[in-house]
Amino acid sequence: MANLFKQTSTDASSAFDQQLYTNTVELMLAEAKRQGATSAEAGLSVESGLSVNVRLGEVETIEHNRDKIMGATVYFGQHKASASTTDFSPEAIKSTVKAACDIARHTEEDQYAGLADADLMAKDIPDLGLYCHWNLSAEGAIELAQECEAVARNFDQRITNSEGSSVSTHDGYRLYANSHGFSGGYASSRHSLSCTVIGETENGMQRDHWYTVARDPVNLESVTEVGQKAAQHTLDRLDARKIPTCQSPVIFSAEVARGLLGSFLSAINGNNQYRKSSFLLDHIGKQIFPGRFTIDERPHLMGALGSAAFDNEGVATQNRNWIENGVLQGYVLDSYSARRLNMQTTGNAGGVHNLFISNDDKTREDLLKEMGTGLLVTEVMGQGVNIVTGDYSRGASGFWVANGEIQYPVEEITIASTLQEMYQQLVYVGNDVDTRGNLQTGSWLIEKMSVAGS
Prior knowledge:
It is built from nine helices and 19 strands. The chain has 454 residues and is α+β, with helices and mostly antiparallel strands. Strand 7 (183-201) and strand 8 (204-214) form a beta hairpin. The protein is globular. The model has no long low-confidence stretch (mean pLDDT 96).
């Protein structure tokens, strides 16, 4: 079984015709110029992959995908329009560009529209190790998924059912070019394994899951680890209780705390800033978090899920502190929102790349002891986050903690506060960092929140 994870290749040249893609995008830009556009940009994406789902040992789905798309955005002065196609033939390129040009001539002028500034384009595009092809057959994927589910189902007799296990492997190539003369492309891969099972006692049923994801399949957790964690998390939730309404300190487990980082990013996103729809409006230079905390972006980490040498506009990415000593340093900007705010793009068209919050040298168990008595949240539900006002109110489940130790699982509760207060009342961030995404953080201990229960 271990050999399946080692069937890999990092040679993107054999998987993608990079020269053909470059020629295709250049043809699109040349056609835009020929049809009168004052400037243009073009992007191309090619993807292929395999996804397998099994349930109760039987194959439910096998999906092979092979997709491609390219698009052009043209500018006639400050008039802008876009069009796309899945046909890469010269005839399709010409008709796609024509469609964009025809639309642009009738769109309203936008003084902020245009390419990102030429002097901000990425000059060097290093190989960040984002591509590692997994030579996995459908039969091999089925075998992995079946073994993972079997581990979970056989873990304990209280595991009575399964929602299945899945394995996926996907490769892609992205290319972006514009009439500044910038052209950059890179291959990437993403592989994952997940499992969800159901446990049952006389007091009812619970479900939970676990997953692992990586660019290199060698870095995936084993089928045994994923199956065991899925089962154990499910068992931990059995016999959940309600708790009385109270004010309580709250620990957000690492995978849930990631959402609090995401809300922070939304609040400092340039689009929400110029639309005046953020609770952190005009907050540059103001204290957002306690002074011990830093939030920074690291776009050039080798093999990381969020790494990129340039953003969706060709602008060079760079290391950046968004929060320094608790103080907001800037907004997440693309060229359009930057112009609206009379600022410069931060190279974040398309989002941030590998965001981290500084953590304390404390495990989650240490945080439980620091909290003493309170609530550990392991899942949140609903859409109760208002980025305009900062109001936070979400359904939740997790565990009640007393004397620094988990006592029993809890469910059917609502936790509420404001993001402003939650950020200011952040006591500790644990070192149990969840690395399975673009936003990486450990568990958060918040000083106090309202908990609505029975």
